[in-house]
Specification:
By secondary structure, the protein is mainly alpha-helical. Helix content is 93%, strand content 0%.
Length: 235
Amino acid sequence: MASIFRRMFKVGQSHAHSVMDNFENPIKMTEQGVRDLKKDLQGTMRSLAEVKGVAIRLKRESEDNKRLAADYERKAMMLLQKMKEGVLDPAQAERLAAEALNRKDECSQKAVSLIQNWEQQDKMAAQLQANVNKLRSTVSSYENELITLRARAKTAAATRKINEQMARVDSSGTIAMLEKMKAKVEEDESLAQSYGELASAEESVDEEINAVLASGQLVPSSNKLAELKARMGIQ
């Protein structure tokens, strides 16, 4: 029986060792993978911030040039209005108005170019944002897997420890010691019972003597015997 238990413990122990060996490398690999992914995520987020920053600047410059174009057009109209009112020399007014319109066209063209660049940059930012989201989800998934692996490894370690303790208990001969202890207890119980029976027998004799004395039957047994023999005619 002890050998069966011993084999069972060995099987459980070897299984726990195998589980632990299988757990150690995946945990380390996952930890390193999570660290690498977090580093990549930080780098990607910095790139995303930079791309978004450029996009924001391009859009702002495009809007500024649109406002400048509208302002140059308004100035050209004011110059022509002053010419119309006779406040400004016609030649000078037309020259300055033409120059304002040229500036207006330049600003409009620049605004169009900037908004095109902004659209391209915004598209890149959207793609980068998608990659960041995907990478963040992957990191989260790996972290959850790591938590699970650690919990399983902890359980396997506890199982191995228990199996080792049980194996040590069996191999140290505890079962044999229990059998010897059981035999000794049974021997002591039998001896105690024997002493108890002897004490009961002695007590019975004493009780009989005391009972006779208490009843007043003090006639010696030899006289009774003589009387009985006389009635029977025995000398």
